[in-house]
Amino acid sequence: MLTENKFSKYLIYAIGEIILVVIGILLALGINNWNQDRITQNRIESRLTSLTSDIEVEIDAMDEIIMRSERRIAIINDIMKRNNKQEAIPWFNKSNLEYLLDSIDNPNASLSISPTFDENRATFTELLNTGEFYTIVDKALSREIQQYYARIDDLKESEQLNQMGIYLRIIESKERLGIGVYAEVSMEKHAELANNDKQFGAELETSIGFDWLQRKNFLELKQSATSLIETIKNK
User: Fold this and answer.
1) Is residue 190 classed as helix, strand or coil in its secondary structure?
2) Angle, CA 57 vertex, CA 69 and CA 227 arms, to 5°
3) 209 with 89: CB under 8 angstroms?
4) Residues 108, 190: contact at Cβ < 8 Å?
5) pTM of this prediction?
6) Are 78 and 187 in contact (CB under 8 A)?
7) Rounded to an integer, what distance in angstroms lies between the CA atom of residue 37 and that of residue 30?
8) Sign of CA dihedral 57, 62, 65, 67
9) Which residues contact 67 (CB under 8 A, 6 or more apart)?
């Protein structure tokens, strides 16, 4: 009986020791996981700060494209007005961009400049490649980031199909008409060429529609970019 009593006490003691060891291991694992999560979240916070910087640079690029498209719209609208063809684009009269004409020294050069949008998604790519993007706690924020870059992809595809195609055709017509791409050519001369050369005139009429669409798309993208920055800063 004494032997059995000692064994029972030893067994209870051993079980207690095992339970304490298990609890200690679980606590250590919990603390380690918590510490790793904290490190990951701190790293994500740092990447989100970098992401806002990337987007701010992209907004500058958007402003440049919007400005260039508005200049082309103003120039082509003036050319069409000189040729009494404004009825082809009555929707243009909803917005007044004619004031830009005073700031354009060489309309020919402005018609020859159609910059493409090159986004800076280095930080977003890092978030995806490391898998940290999927650990962002605020799922509404992660969805907004995904939607922003998906919108950029759609816009760039549309821009490649439409904007660049008509832009290159206008360049080819300029070379065909012998006026050069960046040569000094007056608005009056452009109007004369557009009136006499039906292909060039039609290309300008087509271009103003795509320029208007490009302006609209990048104004909306800029609004999305600004909203995303505010979301990140206020999270």
Assistant:
1) helix
2) 85
3) yes
4) yes
5) 0.79
6) yes
7) 10
8) negative
9) none
DSSP reduced 3-state for 183: coil
Residue closest to 170 by CA, chosen among 191, 188, 194, 195: 194
Q: 91-148: per-residue pLDDT in tens? A: 555 567 777 888 888 899 888 888 888 888 889 999 999 888 888 888 999 999 999 9
What is the distance between the alpha carbons of residues 59 and 65, in angstroms, rounded to a whole number?
A: 10
Token readout for 49 is: 């700060």
End-to-end Cα separation, the chain, in angstroms? 68
Is residue 196 within 8 Å of 123, Cβ to Cβ? no
- Tell me how far CA of residue 11 lies from CA of 6, 14, 22, in angstroms: 9, 5, 16
Residues 6+ positions from 171 with CB-CB distance below 8 Å: 112, 181
